[in-house]
């Protein structure tokens, strides 16, 4: 793990926006800037944006690279389970995928009673609910306890900035969001991916507590894994070593502190009402070092620091130009 002093020179080495002049059909998501090429490829550029409280908070050095490279690791580790959208990685922050029709359901898989948002199973359980997402949870579970088996708690995939709404298998089929065959495929696949994720995480001393998958269909109607997989943004990881003690004490399990920035903000203002103060460099760098640590722990690979003299967006533009030019050259030959 890098200490803050050793990455201090990267404090402003961030990718906030990835506007690439000349690429068509930009969709600016919360985290990624996406472009759809006419030939059916989708370019997904993962920026360093971090959002919370329904608004952008800051840009964290390396976050986009960590997400892209963590997803790459997991796409490779799970390619035998299901096909994924990946075509190429022209830059550390960029994946080129096959553009899919994304299914309107986000497949959230949970192995533990956890979560902090109003739709999470822990919040609902603590409010006294037992029936949720089409499952019935037993009485007497402790916060953060392992569930008897992993469950799928599907939500709608909200369009632009909306909130995801809870679903269930019955609701998905009744509303015709997925066909019975599609539901069977995505639910079986998601549970298999999650089991693989948990098994590999366990070898690294980690618990993969929950995660979210997005699937799409290709031109032949085949179901393909899209977006990202088992990244710190889409997943909750805990440290296995301290888990039993934390569970016993009733305190939250130890995790890569994804909420590093969020906690700093909450301690200083009401983020839903007040203007958010500027996040100081040591907090930004602290968060950056947590992302590096997450990448290295999850993948057991060393994080390759980018060249500090290079502006990330310029590097990405150059790498994409080379990637796209090569393709044109190949087609000409
Ligand atoms: N292969 C793909 N084809 C089409 N859309 C995709 C593919 N992979 C991911 N997406 C979509 O691209 C977007 C990625 O950008 P992101 O910042 O995550 O957006 P959002 O704020 O909508 O989550 C998401 O809307 C995701 O559903
Ligand atoms: Mg997203």
From TrEMBL:
It comes from Methylorubrum extorquens. The keyword Ligase applies. It comes from the Bacteria. Belongs to the SAICAR synthetase family. GO terms for molecular function: ATP binding; phosphoribosylaminoimidazolesuccinocarboxamide synthase activity. The lineage of its organism: Bacteria, Pseudomonadati, Pseudomonadota, Alphaproteobacteria, Hyphomicrobiales. It catalyses: 5-amino-1-(5-phospho-D-ribosyl)imidazole-4-carboxylate + L-aspartate + ATP = (2S)-2-[5-amino-1-(5-phospho-beta-D-ribosyl)imidazole-4-carboxamido]succinate + ADP + phosphate + 2 H(+). Its EC number is 6.3.2.6. GO terms for biological process: 'de novo' IMP biosynthetic process. This is Phosphoribosylaminoimidazole-succinocarboxamide synthase. Keywords: ATP-binding, Ligase, Nucleotide-binding, Purine biosynthesis. It is an enzyme of class 6 (ligase). One of its GO terms (cellular component) is cytoplasm. CDD domains: SAICAR_synt_Sc. HAMAP family: SAICAR_synth. Pathway: Purine metabolism; IMP biosynthesis via de novo pathway; 5-amino-1-(5-phospho-D-ribosyl)imidazole-4-carboxamide from 5-amino-1-(5-phospho-D-ribosyl)imidazole-4-carboxylate: step 1/2. Residues 27-274 form the SAICAR synthetase/ADE2 N-terminal domain. InterPro entries: SAICAR_synt/ADE2_N, SAICAR_synthetase_CS.
